[in-house]
Amino acid sequence: MNSSWRSPSGDFAFGFQQIRAGEFLLAIWFDNIPEKTIIWSPPIDGEKLVEEGSKIQLSEDGQFRLTDARGEKLWDAQLTGSGNVLYAAMFDTGNFVLVSQDSNLWESFNQPTDTIVPTQIMKRDSKLVARYAEKNYSRGRFRFLMQGDGNLVFYVTSFLWDTVDLINRAYWASNTVNQGYQFVFNQSGYIYLADNNGSILYSFTSKETSSTNYYQRAILEYDGVLRHYVYPKTTNGITRNPMNWSMQGSEPSNICDIKETQGSGACGYNSYCSFGDDQRPRCECPPGYSFFDPDDKMRGCKQDFISQDCNGNQDADNFEFRDKLNMDWPGTDYGYFKDVTEDWCRQSCLTDCFCSLAVFKDGECTMKKFPLSNGRMDPNLGGKTLIKIRKENSTYKSPDKGSREGSIDGRSREGSTFGSNKEDRSTLILTLTMLLSGSSFLDLVLLIATLWLVSRLCYWKRRMLQPSRANQGTSLRSFTYKELEEATNKFKEELGKGACSTVYRGVIDIGNKNMVAIKKLDKIMTESELEFQAEISAISKTNHKNLVQLLGFCNEGQHRLLVYEYMSNGSLASYLFGNLRPNWYQRAQIAFGTARGLVYLHEECSNQIIHCDIKPQNILLDDSLTARISDFGLAKLLKTGQTRTVTAIRGTKGYVAPEWFKNKPVTIKVDVYSFGILLLELICCRKSFEQDSEDENQMILADWAYDCYEEGRLYLLVQEDEEAIQDINRVERFVMIAIWCIQDDPSLRPTMKRVSQMLEGAVEVPRPPTISPVNV
User: Fold this and answer.
1) What are phi and psi of 519, to 5 degrees?
2) Residue ranges of the EGF-like domain (predicted)?
3) Residues 237-267: pLDDT tens digits?
4) Which residues are catalytic?
């Protein structure tokens, strides 16, 4: 695979270039320089590298085809024109062509990837696609388009789970609609946009550079900048200095200045971009934040602390500020105040739970909210940025070994190596001191070994006598039917009723719980027995703050009952569709909590669980209105390594994913669909289907929400909610997420982990595709 097809002068070569051990890239590159810089590779989706044994050949059906070692097709050159391929040629310009008797059937110059070279022209409807990273040749975030309308633009794209990308708004444009005709890199090294008469509309280079003395290329790099590079050629075997690629010009001049209305900016959410002396952007995290992926700093940053509690101002005392100069996140403003002091600005942000940071400049205070977007640091900005973070003694940290499972009475295993308490350790220190002063080293070693062995035996003895934390978390109390009958005053106070069960309020002394909810299965049928077993099996193994905790059960004769912790605020349905509706902030928190609970069920508990019946009636609210997922009667468990299952239709009409009705295997994506419908209901405070709606276009919520989104009239969804209207950007983000969730094709729906990240602003939300009309 190391063979290549060189141009007559040897300046360029076509073939397989080795990138990593056993991995190659079909490419065209500069072959007369040590760097072997690549200028073209085929537009293969995802990672472009191929394994050893892959080959490129002219197939029997006349196609120029790349296949892997097993003969599977990876890429075809899309031939145009008539006739069969007579020959191929690698020209000294860097253009590789396939030629018939009448015309060129295909040429690499017409299918550029991220680079163009002298004599190459980009006509209308052509583009450059940046790579993901310097050494990662899969598609990146940025596009450079010569549009069909004559406008030359730079775009940021939103990734759709490595399969599709969707264009966001342009961050640079030539503003030459109906004028621009082609983008030219001429033989003299001059790069410009021309009209159909050849007149220059916009110049990308300030001076011409002779291609006789320099190799040249213009590349859209992974950071979104189009840069023009030159490399000195040799003359009579004498190398010109310096012998490397040097930059001649770039566009845009400062990528940190881009502002995405719907996106994160150059460096991802919650990060900021600064422009270095090397003319390249640097992505950094503000204090209290860290990179999602340290190896991919353009993905943005995440909070390293728990956000401020909005239920009262008590939590404000746990926060403080870190000051930074010349920093801003435009586009996330929600409060602006004039003629105030810096102290006033600090205190106002400190007591406002929505405020992530404030910028104070010249007596003006601007409040910013999470997620932070379009962040940049520039000496020309001025002002002081006050970044609010949780104080060190209250910052959330991952548990260390001393608090993980396996610790005894809060001590780490390491802490019990030589003794179980302070007295043991003090005795040991005294013993060691005496030994060191009057015993041989061998005696000391033997004694230490003996003490260590005794301490480990004591440790494991205590561990055997004490139930493990895992067992404590999943052990359930077994009740008699008489106990539960007495606890509910003979099932007197009904809390709710479902198809196969009724829930009653009860009072039981069970740990620190008194008030409980007791679910009684009404129908003693096979289905109810299966439901009972499923719920016991599923919930007894779960432990998460966004799930309702199962405390006990009764399995006595024909009686099947489940004992849950009591949720004082009832179901989301009664709260959301009743007279006392939650405010916009509360609805957002309920969406976050429900999403986190589903992430736990899908990805974090021991057995993956598909809930199968996510709806407002099954989301309960505790004292602080925290969302708690309940009713695992329909839950479906997946075994380790299993990703889908076949089962009869489950769930509730209006929330059931389309694949249920197509007799196809179901996956965790059925819960994603149901969550999408639930999210729309949370946004609009209305049911997903309202038959009595005065406007038939608003009867089906999903269809109406999509229409409002497409028409740019999202305010109609929350027109009586002033708080939501003031936060219309978040409303739009939520609607876009919901549209992704309710796609007919399960593969297009994001995972709940991705949904949770998008909801909380940790990752961008790409523009969603069209949704099919919803049948209710």
Assistant:
1) -100, 120
2) 257-295
3) 444 555 689 888 889 888 888 877 666 788 8
4) 613
Looking at the domain assignment, is residue 775 inside a domain?
Answer: no
Model confidence at 682: pLDDT above 90: yes
pLDDT at position 419 over 50: no
| Amino acid code (one letter) for 244 | N
Q: What is the pLDDT of residue 772?
A: 59
So what's the pLDDT on residue 513? 56
Amino acid at 141: R
Give per-residue burial for 69-85: e unless 16+ CB within 10 Å, then b. Answer: eeeeebbebebeeeeeb
Check whether residue 298 and residue 235 sit in a common domain. no
Say what the pLDDT of residue 265 is: 82
415-434 in b/e form (b: 16+ CB < 10 A) is bbebbbeeeeeeebeeebee
State how far the Cα of 7 lies from the Cα of 170, in Å rounded to an integer. Answer: 37
The whole model's pTM is what?
0.53
Closest CA to 657 of 598, 610, 717: 610
Contact 727, 740 (CB under 8 A): no
The helix (run of H) or strand (run of E) holding residue 169 is strand 164-173
Q: Position 609: which residue type? A: I
* CA-closest candidate to residue 305, choices 291, 325, 319, 284: 319
Nearest-angstrom CA–CA distance, 543 and 752? 18
Helix, strand or coil, per DSSP, at residue 430:
helix
Q: Domain range for residue 605? A: 572-759
Neighbours of 614 (CB within 10 A): 28
